[in-house]
Amino acid sequence: ITSSASTNLITTNTMSGITYDDKGRMLGYMSTNNEMSKPDSGASLNVFTTTARSQIDYDPATGQMLKYLDTTYSTATGGAYDALTNMVSGGAQEVKSMQGIIYDLQNRMTDYTESTRIKYHESDPSNKDLLYTTTIRNDITYDAATGQMTGYKDTIYSTATGGKMALVAWGTCTDGVKETRVMSVIKYDDKGRMFSYTENDTQYYIEGATVKLNVTTTTVRTNIVYDDTVNKLGQMTGYKDTITSSASTNLITTNTMS
Fold it and tell me: What is the structure's pLDDT at 79?
């Protein structure tokens, strides 16, 4: 795969081990993805990622996918690529479950729950190197003309902020700090890449009857630019953030990255 949005990037995706149910729908597969910069580009990108998708389930009435489970290894997170098997193993293991998927009349996702479990050292049987995060995404909106996503609301719980995770295949993380993130006014450039957006992020934590944390931060990101001239890999190279917070209502912070 090549794209005008990243002219020096070559993406190769190999699918194998595809299985089907009795209605001819996919139940699972193995996918190995390689993102590599062109040899004469002057860039040095070469990342392999292997994902095993399983337990795909469908709505019996509409045939739409309702849930699935992904197990992923990548050379970007310590994994090793084996050219003979065309697979990555070792390093960090990421297990992601998608469930509760709801669609609009145009067959686009409007809601889902995503739970991610990351084990940093696969050989370590203890839980001390685990991170669990659950994201409940609702109210996804789309541009009527282009079909591009224009906004959504995420509710996030994580063991990194005091959350608890059910140790089952389709478990979700609850409790701890509740983070609500609303993305709106998402705009794109002519290559389909985000150009600007507004993010409202609220962190809330209550202990007993006492509110311990309740702060909202608004970030307006504009002028997002991408590398279209040097490496040409479609990587973000700059943006401008304008930030306000309920913790300091008379303060405006501007951060320019380049």
Answer: 92
